[in-house]
Amino acid sequence: MSLAAFTKIKLLGKGSYGSVYEVKRNVDGKKYAMKEINLKFLSMKEEEESLNEIRILASFRHQNITKFKEAFIAEDKLYIVTELVDGGDLLQLIKRRKMTKRYFNEDTIWSIFIQICLGLHYLHDRYQVCKCVLNN
């Protein structure tokens, strides 16, 4: 794939390595999340970490972990395409619920907690440490 195969819809977030966009694949209209990392501003170590992230993401196969779709380099930027999670991340969901005073019931809290535990268990079984978990 190439960058021309996608249309940016909106910015989902920014991090230390780059930005994440909601994108639409032009051929079929399917939506994905696309992480954009500017390689020009990365040290060799950071560039290696980004490439390692791709290898790790590509190896994951679990219902509670975002699925990797593809990665490519274009215009001095690394693009990592993953499935788009409906509703955003957990922090966004918590903030939206708090703003509208629609708090989670206990069953929902347990369900979320169990899903997180199952995903982390999968990672730990494979001796993988996800920097996104450690950073948040």
List low-pLDDT spans: none
Main sheet: which strands, in order across? 1-2-3-5-4
Q: What would you report as the Rg, rounded to the nearest angstrom?
A: 16 Å
Principal-axis shape: globular
Protein name: non-specific serine/threonine protein kinase
GO molecular function, one term: ATP binding
InterPro entries: Kinase-like_dom_sf (IPR011009), NEK_Ser/Thr_kinase_NIMA (IPR051131), Prot_kinase_dom (IPR000719), Protein_kinase_ATP_BS (IPR017441)
Pfam families: Pkinase (PF00069)
Gist of the model:
With 136 residues, this protein is of the alpha+beta class. It has helices at 44-59, 90-99, 106-125, 131-135; strands at residues 6-14, 18-25, 31-38, 68-74, 77-83.
